[in-house]
Amino acid sequence: MRGWWREIAGLVLPVACGGCGRPRTELCPSCRAELEGPGPRRVRPRPEPAGLPAVHAAAPYADAVRSVLLAHKERGALPLAGPLGSALAGAVEAAAGRWDDRGRGPLLLVPVPSSRRSVRARGHDPTRRIALAAAGRLRRRGWAARVVPVLRQRRSVADQAELDARGRFANLAGALEVVAGGERLVESGRVVLVDDLMTTGASLAEAARALRAVDPPFIPAWNGEVGESRFLRPVAAVIACSPSSFDLKRN
């Protein structure tokens, strides 16, 4: 209900740019350009957690990008899912480019799940909403893409905001699982884990672990031969991550 009311309110109430506050626009050209950034890039947090997939991000988490993400996630600026989804789609394309083939099954965007508590508090699931927008943009670009929310939290976790990297890894260890039957949903495509933001990489590493936990040991690989499982080396895409993760010397 809260999400429905926010969408109606957005049609009748004055709007301001989610990045800089400029009136009468949801996202001004300057902030949109900052969100799109110089182009998606392979990024790595420091320290890099074991099991973290190869991650591509659209922009550093700073200034207008930070404001836009918070406006969508915490303040219910739901129309921002469109431009955020466009930025995520670019990062997904960069990640999927590692396969270099559009003909081997659809792109399956697997969102890192939010807790039920946070979804209730916000009135919407921001990552899933952005993933749906990204999938729509990818389809318009010629990709077969869809969202498959096959991950869920199997136990409660603490608020991550005040935890350091080590605390986040411990907090999330073993916290996610694949829903019953979820492994069948991802058998026919190429999985890209997606999230709005990467800080330490703990969430993406745990999501990749949960997928591997149900992965059969021997299935056809992407080259059509029996060999390495397709989930052993997943890829991931996010809208933003810390500026230090964009350090060119480490990429």
TrEMBL record:
TM helices/strands, residue ranges: none
Listed Gene3D superfamilies: 3.40.50.2020
Protein name in UniProt: ComF family protein
